[in-house]
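Q: Structure for this?
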Amino acid sequence: MATTLTSDKDLEDLIACPSCDALYHAAAPGHGERAVCARCHHVLIAPIEGAVLRIVALALTILILLGTAVFVPFLKIEAQGLSHSTSIVDAALSFSQAHMIGLSIVVLALIVFIPLARAMLLIYVLAPLMFHRLPLTGARMAFRWSEELRPWSMAEIFVLGVGVALVKVADLARVELGAAFWMFAALVIVTVLQDGFLCRWSVWKALDARTGKATSE
Amino acid sequence: MPVDAPVLTARKAGLVACTQCAGVWNVGQAKCPRCGAALESRDIHSLSRVWAWWFVGLLCYIPANLFPMLNTTFMMKTSGDTIVGGAVTLISHGAIPVALVILIASVAIPASKFVAVAYLALSVQFRWKTDHLKRMQLYEFVEFIGRWSMIDVFVVAVLSALVQLSVVVSIAPGPAAVTFAMSVVFTMLSARSFDSRLIWDSLDPQPDEDSLT
Ligand SMILES: [Zn+2]
Ligand SMILES: [Zn+2]
């Protein structure tokens, strides 16, 4: 097949399914509706009314929750007159006491640093759009990174892990839940909401509209 | 529209699509002008990366099941618990739902993930024509569920930080915690290396042989 060079103007209205490569003319559906790939059912576009504002608000909530949870009591155990309390950081660092410092760093990253980084990147990308300003330098790279990091942000899995751990110690000792535990539980809900509001395609369109078109040279 | 009817793909239109931002560009463009991601019509190294991560993941998964995940010291006596051993202890204490969570997250999900990723890679390598939509859904499920295997690592982290009651009882992580975490990370990387567009290529009437390694 002869490769015809298509002008950038034509390419702009096209969207290719990232999962199966099917080509479509991008037509943004109404708020709350979804454009789905006809053959692989991948959700292509799912814009939500006021999504930018909501995502920034939720990202700020994540920053505050995580930033505080690290410093307040997490869990306290009591048995036979002995007691011991632990913080979120202690939980991650427990591996380094057993000479597994690498795993400590990985766990800290998965439950604290990566969720923090994602929230900060999203604020950096979306806050200027919220105020109808030009995106900050590197906003495009920041958004790509925030999406790359998404599967590695594991706060919600950590919360389920805490639940399992609590059942395991239930008949061994009494456990007191600290503020950090509830903050992490809230974090799960906030993260799920945020990911529901985030439509990748809409963010890219908004970035394009504010910085002029991306052109292929 | 029948699912198996050939549709116009970006590749057939002489274009290259960005898997990050769904933008479409002329062939020859190396980087996506919109988001900066590397552009490739089909990632030809995809399958070798899938298999490489798959093998190291499997290699780490074997010791993860043989060695203890955590060591419990109770009244000066230390005993180790493997993943399955820990679940059996939970069942003997009557905590069957929690034991099921552990067995599903640490045994069923990783094991079926190895099978599923291998099946997907082989199906693409040998151009099997099995139901494309089913394979696509299998892939999306594998990507979605894989990260939940990390739960046992977090359980060990919380237990060994929390249960520190001097001489009475203390819990420390065992060597399997490291190999298990590595196995989860490597299988996640294996699944993410897979270019799902390859699944749909066998629908195209003229197979493009050099799109495969
Ligand atoms: Zn598709
Ligand atoms: Zn792109």
